[in-house]
Amino acid sequence: MLNWAKTVSLRGVGCTSDQLIEWFNEGKYQDILNNIDGLISKRNNLAVLYNLKGACLSKVLRHSEAIQNYQTAIIHDPDFPDAHNNLGNEFEFEGKCSLAVEHYKNAIRVRPRFAQAHYNLGVLHHKSGQISDAKLCYETACAFDPNYAESFNNLGNLFKENEETIEAIDAYQKALNANPDHPNAKFLLAALLGESLVSCPRQYVERLFDQYASRFEKSAIIDLYYELPQWLPKTLHAKNNYKSFGSVLEIGCGTGLFGEGLKVNCTSLIGVDISHKMMTVAAEKNVYDELHHEDCTEYLRSAPLNFDYIAAFDVFPYIGELETIFELIKTRTLCSGKLVFTTEHNQEGDLELQKTGRFSHSKEYIENLCDQFKYEISHFGLINLRKENQRYLCGGLYVLEF
Q: How many domains does the chain have?
């Protein structure tokens, strides 16, 4: 998955402001905001200090104030590349792409070998579908900074998206040379090399959806023809003879796309998701009675389970091995109920890590789990999940009784 996160650039001057930058790297943003105005009042290094203040305001989601401080930094130093780069990030966040491009290019004009600005410009082009421009920007950033793991990673993602497997493998390997623990590069390289993994690393999944949260719904519904959230709750309601679902637990609730349809026909709806940023979007919809930022396995292991329905839509491809989940639901649920979920369907075999970095599951694999943990399959059908590379992705829809 593409790393949409933009690189913020800072430059220290003098002992006191260097200490603030150390705080920034430690995530002490509010501590900086509590102290930085005192330094600004001394009227030294104003461009640097306003740039740092803007970066902190951005981190605490005060984006309009961040823009004001970056602009003030540029007033004090019109050729301050760090402030131009960071202001470009903010304008892109607000969807003002032309202004973002202008400031990234200003940063590069002043500092031609500014790898971070080339990378950030590449991310903007990549998100906009300008693939050749994105590739050039990533390659330029990598040339100026051979240890730029994120740029190699995104270059690998770009190649993978265009099914250029050899080039993607090379880029991911270079990302890992720069950062051996890079979660995205490590996992997707393993997928492309056909390694026999049985689960997605939590760090990879959490990072993936945190970075995707702000554009998830637009991308899924418009770009990928993702119609499942609209018709699946209605279909399940019909299969339930138009009775209430009762109490529902939705694991991997994401931004609440399915929750909106489920809420209409249930008495309570609890959502669990590993991505805090996806859940932030879900919370704004006010369809969940409770939301829990937690790995679904951890939640199933520790929370009281007393639900009529447990739903997992487009979740299991990002988990892989399902034995633990099936066991926890069966052994810890306090009442009988139904487990409803979708898979990316695999015609043969059991569990397969695909080159996309997602897992597919066969019907035989699910049947074996049902035999092991005493579930009954009351419904199975093949469905179109969404489009990928202009083709519909085949999925399986299961309703199990336990």
A: 2
